[in-house]
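Async update (no meeting this week)

Hi team, since we skipped the sync, here's where things stand on the single-chain job. The sequence we agreed to prioritize is pasted below, unchanged from the tracker. I ran it this morning and attached the output directly underneath so nobody has to dig for it. Comments welcome in thread, and please keep replies under the output.
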Amino acid sequence: MIGKLKILALTFILMLAGSNFTSSLALAVEEDCDSMEVLKRYSLFSEYHKNKDFQSALPFGWQVLECDKARFSKWIYYKMEDCLWFVHDSLDLAEEEVVAIEDTILSFYDMAMQYYPDGMAYFQQRKAFVVETWLELEPVVVIAEYVKAAEYNPELDSYYFHRFGQLYINNMSDENDYKMKAIDVYTMLAVREPDNPQWPDILSELVDNVDQLLDIRKKNWELDKENMEKAWTYASECIRAEAYDRAIEPLEFLTQQSPETLNYWNQLATAYNKVERYDDAEQCYIKLLELEPENKDFYFNLGLIYKEQGRLSKARQYFQTASDKAGGWGLAIFSTGLLYEQSARGCAFDFKTKVVYKLAQDTYRRAYNMDQSLAQARDRIGALSGSVPTQEDYFFYGYKSGDTIGVTGDCFGWIGKSITVP
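Output:
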């Protein structure tokens, strides 16, 4: 009986409030709003909330808000929402009691955003969800609320983007642009969460093929050619589709418009590399090193470019710098071993070449000792076991254990290293 009376009291207050919180509730009893009285009611509200007695908390919360909507704004609106959601979703309410809450909830959120602007992004996304699931309003109304939530918070949780993305999809027609907007939503999610297969799957259902999607993105950018966001969207889709040749144009535009943005240069370098424009990729990494000279990855990637160009000595220099910047980096040392092996494969297989294979093997071993997760280094050590000098080779050329053998020969003039006879 007591619980029912509490619900009836709550319903009475909600119905009095209606959709206008500025009307007088008379505080359910005709008490004044002096500071100490409001503090007392807030204390009672907070105590009931802390004990999860949300039914008993609500009337006191309404009374506090009627007296002073701003004084406890940092806490009361979040707590009041807890109470409203619990009563709405967890209790067996009469229909008129549910209606009373639903008639009030939108005004509650508007008041929360007005008097606690720091919570605006949170309350707007919750308002959108309520408009969709509690009130089941028209899709155009629901979408507008979700769009507003995304404007307030571009980092809005993917859960909410997915909800209104589905609204776009479910209400697409020839009379609206919902298909394009759905593509926008799921493209953004695919870029944000590249490892989530759900978003590309949805995108693939919205367009006939990847090329069509890229054509749409390109046209969208070309109609607003100075729009960096549209350029990045187009570039991101190209990268995701591995259409690196198409990604170059928007990425070049982005690096011109925002020359200090590392990501644009990094993506452009990757695109150039993928289409074998190594000279252009080199210039991108040189720019990246100007912007961030301590970044080991940029040194390493520039080393890979020089490796592709056959500039092995320069590649080794950058791999070594990458390792130094990292305080010892197994992958960079392993890549140096690949340079030696690459050089050896291009020459006649004789004792001098075997010495280079031994240098590569020793380098792989050093890399593996740095990082034992480098299974490829361990594999190359074994793979070269038949290519390095044998004990008979050392004996034949007059070397004994502990001797040093320099790398020599026209093929290996760039190396300038030596090995130790085991």
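Quick observations from my side:
The CA atoms of residues 66 and 149 lie 27 Å apart.
The first strand starts at residue 404 and ends at 406.
Reply here if anything looks off.
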